Every structure is written in C-alpha cells, then in structure tokens.
Amino acid sequence: MPDDDGTGWLFPLPKEEPPEKPLLYSIKRPLWTANKAKLIQRYLRTFVFITHHGTYIDLFTGPQEPKQLDTWAAKLVVEIEPKWLRHFYLFEKHAKRIQQIEQLKLENSDRHIEPFPGDCNVRIHELLDRKSIREKEATFCLLDQRTFQCHWTTVTALATYKTEGNKIELFYFFPKAWYERAIAGIRNTDILKRWWGRDDWKRVLAWRAMKCVNEMEQRFRTELGYKSARAFPIYKDPQGRSIMYWMIHATDHPEAPTEMLRAYNAVGLGLPAETKEQLMFRYNNIDLDEPDGLERVSK
Asked: 33-283: which CATH architecture?
C-alpha cells in the first residue's frame, strides 16, 4: 500500500508518548472513500457484540451522496444487527439532509433516533448538558467534516464528557486531498482559529497535511488524554493512488486499535462480516445472547 509520499508500503506512524500497544496486523489493502461508511459499520458491529449496548453520535449526519445511500454511515449504523445500539443522536444543518434523517427515523421507528437540526458545534452542548448519556454507556461519535467545520471546542466537549471509564470514542476525519488548497484559500481566519482551537493557529498555515495530521494525533493523546489515537488513510479509489482523508481513531479501550485495523483490512479486502460463532471463538467467553432490559422505542 503506497504511503503518503508514495515511497513505501506502510503509512508512517508517529512515535507515541506514552507508547501504544503495537498493532498486530499491517494494513493489507487500501480502503477508499466509497467504503468509509462500511468501515464504521463493521467496527461498531463488533463492539455491539462485545458491549451489548451503545450510543452513536453523528455530527455531520446527512448523506454526502444522496443517491448512494449504501455509503451513508448513519443508515448503515442504524441497520446493524442485532439492534443493540440503543440511542442515535444525529446532527445536520442542511434542510434537505435533515429530511433524509427524518425519513431514516420514520423507517426505523423501533429505535431511539433523535435528530438535531442546526450547527453541531452549538447543539452538541445541548445534548451533553442533558447528561442523558450514561458514564458506562459505550459511546461513539463520527466527525465526518468536509474541511474545517468541526470546532476544537466541540472535540474537547466530547472527549471530556465522561468523568469515569472510557471516553467517548471518536472517528475524526481530516481532509488530506484538498488541505493545502483550503488553507491557502482561507480569508476569514476565525474559521481556522475555531477549527484548530489553540493560540498557535498561525503555524498551521505553513504546514503540509501530514504534519498537521501527526500533530492532531498527538493532541488527541496529550491534550485530550486518549490512550490511543491513530490515523487511517482513506483513499480516492481502490488502487490507493491518492489519499482523500485521514480518519483519526481516538479511543481508551485496550482492544479498539486492533479491532479498527481488523475492520479496515476486512472492508478493504471485501471480506464478509464475521458470524456470531466466529466472534465467540475470538473472544472466548463473550456473551452473544440478547441482553436483558434492552431499551426499545414503541412503534
């Protein structure tokens, strides 16, 4: 798999402080943009089997390709079987995409789906201030921004919400392909200030995309306190000729980095989803029965 510079076969991983547990596998095949939603679905399905519960937050929910709903992450996550993810909080500011979210809610009336129309950087605080997400509830948040739409204060609010146990797990998308062009085109520097969230934002103007990605990884670990933060390349096409995004996966769960890499490889290689029996074999004592007291929404 070509790296970001086209000189090798693995993308470079920064030295980590504190060091992370080494990955057990290498990336085997490029994962391209059409499959990034399947990556999120594949990964979360495994964790649903492990936790038997979970909450999903999506800050930029609407489908990026309205006519290709098989690439819509929120739809694929809602459709995960068994239906043990309990709560879905879906944020979107564009009116047409909000209509699609409302339709998704209508088609899945047995699930707790709550749309949040408007700016996610404002409305996320409404959700978090309600304290409706329990401390021990496995919680995942997708931040699939186009460029600089997600404020660092939003990322910080998510990362610091829980006071015990594992933090909210984040899938943070960083724009690689058009990063330098977007930086050069900024006229309103407040956009960059809010996105970067630190007083040294002017340094970013001179950085290449890879330098900024490495710095972001470090910030997730040092500033936000995540035990692991790793960037996964999302390519333009199946041949891996150009990186479109880096997805930074930030987590506290000790098995999560390995599970994400396993999901990345499986989706990239087009492997079928693991069966219950395969998951049971891999996790030995995992309980795959229907959990007691599973919350449902009446039809």
From this structure: 3-Layer(aba) Sandwich (3.40)
Q: pLDDT tens digits, residue range 23-47?
A: 434 666 667 778 999 999 999 999 8
**pLDDT given at position 5:** 46
Domain boundaries, the chain: 33-283
Phi and psi at residue 101, to the nearest 5°: -65, -40
Give the span between the Cα atoms of 111 and 88, in whole angstroms.
8
**Residue 34: what residue type?**
A
Cα 127 from chain centre: 18
Q: What is the largest CA-CA distance in the chain?
A: 56
Task: Count Cβ atoms below 10 Å from residue 188 Cβ, excluding itself.
Answer: 8
For residue 20, the model assigns a pLDDT of 53
Instruction: Decide the pairing of beta strands 87-92 and 169-175.
Output: unpaired
CB-count exposure of residue 278 (10 Å: 0-12, 13-18, 19+): exposed
DSSP symbols for the chain:
---TTSSSSSPPPPP-SSPPPPPSS---S--BGGGHHHHHHHHHHHHHHHHS--EEEESS-S-SSTT-GGG-HHHHHHT-SS----EEEEEE--HHHHHHHHHHHHHTTTSEEEEEES-HHHHHHHHHHTT-S-TTS-EEEEE--SSS-S-HHHHHHHHTS-SSSSPPEEEEEEE-TTHHHHHHT---HHHHHHHH-STTGGGGGG--HHHHHHHHHHHHHHTS--SEEEEEEEESSTT--SEEEEEEEEE--TTHHHHHHHHHHHHHHTPPPPPHHHHHHHHSS---SPPTT------
**CA gap 91, 196 in Å, rounded:** 21
